[in-house]
Give the backbone structure.
Amino acid sequence: MRTSKEQINATVKAFGDAMHAARNYTNPDLTPEGLDKERERLAERARSTYAKEVDGHRSSLYLDRDRSAFDKYRPKLDWNKPADVAKAQSKWTAVQGKLDAGLSIGQVIESADATTLVAINEFYPDYAEAAHAGALTRGQQYEAPDVSHVHRAVDDRAADIGGHTDRSALQTSRQAAGLHAYADVTLAHLDKAVAGQVNGVSDLHAAISAQQAEAEAMTGGSALIANHDPNTADAGQEAAAVSE
C-alpha cells in the first residue's frame, strides 16, 4: 500500500489527538492514583498503535519506486562503448572552452544537446572540484563543491529534449523525492514523540522544516550563475550552482 503526505499528516494528527485524550481522561470513580495509571495506560496504547503506523509509512516509502522513474532517461555515459566515450569527451572539450570563455554552466546546459548533457553529467563534477581546489588559499579546508543543481538542470534539459514521456517521468520522480524528504523530517519527529522523548522541537517547527525539505527536494534552491571564472576565489562554489 502506498502512502502520501496526507496520510502521514493524518497519522500525526491522530496521534496528537489520542495523546491529548489520554492526558485529559477523567473518571470520577477512580482515585487520583488510579486516574494517573489509566491515563498512562491510554498514552502507552496510543504510542504502541502509532509506532506501528509510523513503521507502516516507512515500509511503504521503502517500496516506492517513483523516485527512480526518471533513471532510464537520465543522461549517462556507458564506458563500455568506446565510440560513445569518444563523443562525450569531444563534447566536454567544447564545454570546457565555453566555461573558460566566461559562460556559466547554466548557460551551456540551456542549449545543450543529448550528448553534451551526458558529458556534463560525467565530467563536470571533477572540473568543479579542480576549480574549487585551485582557488583555495593556504590554510583553507577543502570541501567538495555541491554539484547537485547541475545534475538537476541536466535532468530538466534532458526531459525537455525527450518530450512528454521524459517530462512526465521527471515530474513523477521529483514529486516522489519531495514526499520522501517531507516524510523523513515528519516521521523522525513523530518517532521521538511516540517514544515520549521531549527534544525541544515543536510540532509547528517540525512541520515547517518538513515543508522546506519537500520544496528543496522538488525544486532545488540555486540561482543562475551570471558568469564563470575559474580564476576567482569563489569559482568552485559558483561552478556548483545553476538555475532551475
User: Anything to note?
Assistant: DSSP finds nine helices and no strands in the chain. The longest helix spans residues 32-63. Confidence is low (pLDDT under 50) at residues 222-244.
